[in-house]
Design brief:
The protein has about 350 residues and is an all-alpha fold. Helices cover about 80% and strands about 0% of the residues. It has twelve helices and no strands. Helix 2 runs parallel beside helix 4 and helix 10 packs antiparallel against helix 11. The protein is globular and about 55 Å long. The termini are far apart.
């Protein structure tokens, strides 16, 4: 639509993820301080505005700004959803609550690529964003049924929040710039150095204030750090499916938008199976073995995908996507259970 090369089109994903990835920790802290339901509702309202702006954007720069707004809404909503899910159930039912939450996300993710492909075929790409506006607004109305927990007045470390968001955004931008041939490598190194400086400044501040966004001492505990590192690496690897697979399915395997949506949905169908299986395995073999099983399944699905090409049968691609999805479902529930427990 905007007549852009593929390298520029990737900013559609990068811009969105850069914003919500930078704000997730801050948004989660806002939920702790001011109520997860309130922050969740603010995220839904901002998401509706961002999606409408994406659909109506007349040019590429305004479209990217709208995607950034959408990223703000996603950070606010997504950071609070696990806490909302677990707050409705007793501690003994936490794993089941997390499995239900993960299954709901996977079910939505299964429907999303299929419906997105159909919308693109019928009415073009803006329909994908227009359709999300009423979904966000209906969810916002239904959120009024959630209990509104009483919160204790505690200070919000605004300076620490800015430092942490700046740390994350400069780090992510340095990684993005390192992959862009048209951007000098020095820029990536400078941004990486800036992110390290900002991180040190945040750690110093977090150790001085009574209510930091996240306490650095948590990462001294391997029981907390190792699962976070594994989840980050598995998510990093798995994100290649969203970033690259649609182009492979359409441009290499020559599938229609609807067909590509159906095949892409297989990864999330796997997650729909992996989430309840994770709740079962956590009870039987424990949290950490289930996390490692999830990481192993992600690798077993992704590694063969790296060697697919124009002659690869679509069914083989779909099977590998299912395998990767099962791993992500196993990982998400067990990992969230570990972090919540810690």
């Amino acid at each position: 639509h905007f007549r852009l090369p593929l390298a520029d089109v990737q900013w559609l994903v990068i811009c969105y993820v850069l914003v919500y990835g930078s704000l997730m920790l801050v948004a989660g802290k806002l939920g702790d301080l001011f109520g997860h339901r309130l922050v969740f509702q603010a995220g839904l309202a901002i998401s509706a505005i961002g999606c409408a702006a994406c659909a109506a954007a007349p040019d590429w720069p305004l479209f990217l700004w709208a995607r950034a707004v959408q990223g703000v809404g996603t950070a606010l909503a997504l950071a609070c959803t696990p806490a909302l899910a677990t707050s409705l159930f007793p501690e003994s039912e936490r794993t089941k609550a997390l499995a239900g939450f993960a299954s709901a996300m996977a079910l939505a993710a299964v429907a999303g690529p299929f419906l997105g492909g159909a919308l693109v075929e019928l009415w073009g790409w803006p329909a994908v964003y227009w359709a999300r506006v009423p979904i966000a607004l209906v969810t916002l109305a239904l959120s009024l049924l959630l209990p509104s927990p009483k919160t204790e007045p505690r200070p919000f470390d605004a300076r620490g929040a800015l430092l942490l968001a700046a740390t994350m955004s400069s780090l992510l931008l340095s990684l993005v710039f390192s992959q862009r041939r048209e951007i000098p490598g020095l820029w990536s190194l400078v941004l990486f150095a800036v992110s390290l400086g900002l991180l040190l400044a945040y750690v110093r501040r977090a150790n001085r204030v009574p209510e930091p966004i996240i306490r650095p001492s948590l990462f001294a505990d391997p029981r907390f750090t190792v699962p976070n590192v594994l989840n980050a690496l598995a998510s990093l690897a798995g994100f290649a499916i969203l970033l690259l697979t649609p182009y492979y399915l359409v441009n290499v395997l020559k599938l229609t938008a609807l067909g590509a949506g159906i095949v892409l949905a297989m990864a999330f169908a796997g997650s729909l199976t992996g989430a309840p299986l994770s709740a079962f395995l956590v009870k039987r073999i424990g949290q950490r073995p289930t996390v490692f099983a999830g990481v192993a399944f992600v690798g077993l699905g992704l590694l063969p995908l790296a060697f697919t090409g124009v002659t690869t049968p679509v069914l083989v691609v779909a099977a590998l996507l299912v395998l990767e999805g099962v791993g992500q479902g196993l990982l998400l529930v067990a990992y969230t259970d570990i972090v919540t427990d810690t």
